[in-house]
């Protein structure tokens, strides 16, 4: 099955590195090159990644989304979900989490 994900802002779930919110730069099998990527370490106020991709989160101050990185290669991708414009804005407004 071929899909056109390059250039789209998506939620990416992988087997090894967890969940990311980013623009898909390149997709090759189960490997994806992401740009403008934030790891979604912990979220609050969305029951599933599907809801997060559609609506964003309801409790942004309780989420743990670290700083955005310019580019990252993610292997063993098992799910890619398109993100709505509203959810993308919501994700961008989550404060940067630091330890």
Describe the structure.
The structure is a single chain. The protein has a single domain, classed as SH3 type barrels (Roll). It is 15% helix and 38% strand. It has 2 helices and 5 strands. It has helices spanning 49-55, 85-92; strands at residues 9-14, 18-28, 31-39, 69-74, 77-82. Strands 4-3-2-1-5 form a 5-stranded antiparallel sheet, covered by helices on one side. Strand 1 (9-14) and strand 2 (18-28) form a beta hairpin. Helix 1 (49-55) packs across helix 2 (85-92). The termini are far apart. The model has no long low-confidence stretch (mean pLDDT 96).
CATH class: Mainly Beta
Strand content: 35-45%
Overall body shape: globular
**Second-tier CATH architecture:** Roll
Percent helix, as a range, is: 10-25%
* Unreliable residue runs: none
Largest sheet: 5 strands, antiparallel
CATH topology: SH3 type barrels
Query: How far is it from the N-terminal to the C-terminal residue, by CA?
Result: 41 Å
Q: For the largest sheet, list the strands in their spatial order.
A: 4-3-2-1-5
Give me some keywords for this one.
99 residues, alpha+beta, SH3 type barrels, five-stranded antiparallel sheet, 38% strand, globular
Short description:
The chain has a single domain (9-92), classed as SH3 type barrels. Strands 4-3-2-1-5 form a 5-stranded antiparallel beta sheet, covered by helices on one side.
């Amino acid at each position: 099955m071929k899909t056109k994900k390059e250039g789209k802002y998506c939620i990416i779930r992988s087997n090894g590195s967890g969940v990311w919110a980013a623009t898909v730069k390149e997709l090759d099998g189960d490997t994806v090159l992401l740009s403008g990527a934030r790891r979604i370490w912990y979220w609050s106020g969305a029951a599933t990644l599907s809801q997060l991709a559609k609506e964003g989160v309801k409790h942004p101050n309780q989420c743990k989304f670290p700083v955005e990185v310019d580019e990252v290669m993610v292997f063993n991708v098992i799910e890619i979900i398109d993100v709505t414009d509203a959810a993308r804005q919501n994700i961008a407004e989550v404060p940067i989490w630091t330890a």
